[in-house]
Amino acid sequence: MKALVWHGKEDIRCDTVSDPRIEQPGDAIIKVTSCAICGSDLHLYHFLIPAMLPGDIMGHESMGVVVEVGPDVRTLKKGDRVVIPFTIQCGECEQCVRGNFSVCERTNRKKQLADKMFGHTTAGLFGYTHLTGGYPGGQAEYLRVPFADTTHLKVPDGIPDEKLLFLSDILPTGWQAAVQCDIQPDDTVAIWGCGPVGQMAIRSALLLGAKQVIAIDHLPERLMMASAAGAITIDFMREKVIERLNDLTEGKGPQKCIDATGTESHVSFAQPDTILDRAKQMVMAENDRPHVLREAIYACRPAGVVSIIGVYTGLADKIPMGMAMNKGLTFRMAQAHVPRWTDDLLHRIEDEQIDPSFVITHKVGLDRGPEMYRTFRDKQDGCIKVMLQP
Amino acid sequence: MTLLTNLTQRIARSPGDPKVMRKGPSSLTDADQLARTLAMFSFGLGMTEVLAPGRITRAVGLEGKEGLIRAYGAREIASGIPTFSIDKQVGLLMRLAGDALDIATVLPALRKDNDRRGNAALACVALIGITLLDAIAATRTSAVHKRSDAPPRDYSRRSGLPRGVEASRGLARRDFTTPPDYHTAGTLAESL
Questions:
Q1: Do the Cβ atoms of B122 and B78 come closer than 8 Å?
Q2: Looking at the domain assignment, is residue B150 inside a domain?
């Protein structure tokens, strides 16, 4: 089969690889009908998480049709149409029972490595380094789904892939970013980063009733897309973010702040700390560029919430903890607990409350995947979200 | 890289995981590859200059400038790091500035009374060649990775909210209850 394979920093190729095989009785194989490149795939493309190995298959946003099931699979059969969450969950461990699926205790097949690196293991993830199991990803023609009974969302026929695919990651991720804020009707929600997750967080905050949603980015096409959903936009290259946020909140700051940027804050002289972070990142003296997190802590109203949904990879310097502590901020963060939200979000798609296909700007075959990684990373051609159809 | 791919297959994956059978074209462009080669050259030359500056100064007749050559070695390594990174344009510009310094340093060795003038001339030619390669890499990587100056695509109708923005505000509040573990709202009065 064809698959997008990681061979090194900035080196992704559409290779011919052997087909995946059922390994455990609870596995299933799906024929992938659609998949996508995620912003967090760029962290691997840039080798910011040094736990990728040449030959790893990329991708954690995929959907398709079941073509084979292991003998122990009870809830799936050949021909079922499914969206595959990026998290692999057992559904039975203490964390799964509590709904904390992204920290499932059983599905990371390299648990010992994760225990060492994170203190305690997190869930296995598709196509996202050997720290999270080294599972082959879904940017491929076929995908083996471990723990298949609990690692799928059955979706009905009659709704196109474009509307359903993002239930695998960015829609529940953006939704969780907003839910983590516990949005109230008089809240102002500021969202840093208008990439695909930021765009979903904007729509989620609106649906959850925020009085005012403020979107912060510098790319005109992303700000335009944010504005289309009613967000007030701030271009951080042209405007002073803190001043504008204070102006929009009677000097008090937003009650709820969402960091939908994570480890790769834009580097520019307008944000001098990002230059120092980038230099340190190059010599491996720091893993992350947490400019957005610093700014969100500074901007947030005392006793407010900072919701972190952008991916951080390791050690982040100069986080103003004194500021956060004295302001009494609440931090909520996690990789999205995807299945916790997907039934509800599927209902909202069917009910036409949201149509996630708005975010797709490029739709191509798998063979053009390597080129699309470049286009997406370089923000060329108005690229915000790439959908791949194997 | 094929050897590495096969090795990692054995130690890091399970038997049912797909194995690479035939590689496709890389997302790395020729310009990126050239920049990487120049970065490796930077590391190699930089290490040589730091560890054996005397050999270089003797070869071109610049005895007494060992300290300077050692500093240039550190500069080469420092410019190699960003050249090897995703911000390769920054590294390549640093390399071009370094090339100018290198040429300015070697030029005095072309004086007539230098008995190693031939070596110095050869070094000058090599430096000019490297400078050209750096210039080509800098120009091409900038061109390949540049955002277009064209007006942005029009996404002003992509709300993703089929019922419209205002009709959608708070729509989910009708049937969505924030799970207890995500509660942050509430006042002291409510809790009393």
A1: no
A2: no
The CA distance from B65 to the nearest CA of chain A, in Å, is: 29
Q: H/E element holding A232?
A: strand A232-235
Strand A28-37 relative to strand A81-84: parallel, antiparallel, unpaired? unpaired
Nearest-neighbour CA in chain A from B49: distance (Å): 20
What value does the mean pLDDT take over residues A324-341? 98
Task: Please report whether residue B36 resides in a domain.
Answer: yes
Distance from first CA to last CA of chain B, Å, rounded?
66
Chain B CB within 8 Å of residue A378 CB? yes
CATH number at residue A92: 3.90.180.10
- Please state the domain count of chain B: 1
Of B12, B20, B157, the CB nearest to A15: B20
Mean pLDDT, all residues of chain A: 97
CA dist A225 and B143 (Å) reads 27
Are residues A62 and A117 located together in one domain of the fold? yes
Check CB contact of A243 with chain B, cutoff 8 Å: no
Cβ pair A17:B168 closer than 8 A:
no
Give me the domain span that covers residue B97: 27-143
> So what's the pLDDT on residue B157?
96
- Cα end-to-end distance, chain A, whole Å: 10
Is residue A85 packed enough to be buried (19+ CB in 10 Å), middle (13-18) or exposed (0-12)?
Answer: buried
Residue numbers of A between 134 and 153 with CB closer than 8 Å to B = 134, 136, 140, 144
Give the domain range for residue A22.
2-169+336-389
- Average pLDDT of the residues in A316-323: 97
CB contact under 8 A, A207 and B178: no
Query: Is A125 in the same domain as A247?
Result: no
CATH for A287: 3.40.50.720
Per-residue pLDDT of chain B (192 residues; tens, 9 = 90+): 567 777 777 778 898 899 999 999 999 999 999 999 999 999 999 999 999 999 999 999 999 999 999 999 999 999 999 999 999 999 999 999 999 999 999 999 999 999 999 999 999 999 999 999 999 999 999 999 999 888 889 999 999 999 999 999 999 999 999 999 999 877 777 777
> pLDDT over 70 for what percent of chain A?
100
Residue B1 forms part of a structural domain: no
Q: State the nearest Cα–Cα gap between A20 and chain B, in angstroms.
A: 5
Cβ within 8 Å of B, A 160-199: 179-182, 184-185, 199
In a domain, B152, yes or no: no
Angle, vertex CA A133, rays to CA A128 and CA A134, nearest 5: 55
